[in-house]
Amino acid sequence: MTIRFSAARGDTPPAVMRLLCSWAPLDAVNDNGATRRASPVIPSAANQNGHDERMLTEALRHFAVYGLSAARHARANAEAARLAGDDKACEWWIAVCRQLDRRMAEAFERRIARSG
Q1: What is the pLDDT of residues 71-88, one digit of tens each?
Q2: On the CB side of 12, how many CA atoms lie within 13 Å of its CA?
Q3: What CA–CA distance (Å, rounded) separates 87 from 66?
Q4: How many domains does the chain have?
Q5: What is the model's pLDDT at position 71?
Q6: How far is 50 from 29, CA to CA, in rounded Å?
Q7: Cα separation of 60 and 64, whole Å?
Q8: 71 vs 26, 45, 53, 101, 115, CA distance in Å?
Q9: Rg of the chain's alpha carbons, rounded to an integer?
Q10: Would you say residue 106 lies in a domain?
């Protein structure tokens, strides 16, 4: 999971930018000045009932406990729930894993589908 940060800046560029590279535009990724428009937000059905926010909160709590191995722990919890026959808990942990590592969650779901 990549986290990128770019500080916001006003309409006037800092003096250092003019001195370093006057011929190349050095814009930050998240600058939403007058030339850029924000993308429209389309509410999903999951977001309307608050499930997305709850899932994100729980995924962040899980990440706070396990750090960078949080997705692997969530997948392991999903496997344990599946072996115990608790499909609801398995789906929950897969959703937590998906918040942290989409590819890992999709690979696990494909493996479940293959094994039947």
Answers
A1: 999 999 999 999 999 999
A2: 2
A3: 23
A4: 1
A5: 95
A6: 29
A7: 6
A8: 35, 24, 18, 6, 21
A9: 21
A10: yes
Token couple for 110: 């494909």
The b-or-e profile of 28-42 (16+ CB within 10 A means b, else e) is eeeeeeeeeeeeeee
Residue 41 lies in a domain: no
pTM of the predicted model, to two decimals? 0.57
Is residue 46 helix, strand or coil? helix
Domain that holds residue 74: 50-115
Distance CA 102, CA 110 (A): 12
3-state secondary structure of 34: coil
Q: What tokens were used for 103?
A: 């590819």
pLDDT in tens, 32-44: 555 444 444 444 4
Query: Which residue bears the tokens 């500080």?
Result: 7
- Distance, in Å, from the CA atom of 43 to the CA atom of 26, rounded to the nearest integer, reads 33
Task: Map tokens 């398995």 to a residue.
Answer: 90
Structural domain includes residue 15: no
Say how many Å lie between the first and final Cα of the chain, rounded: 30
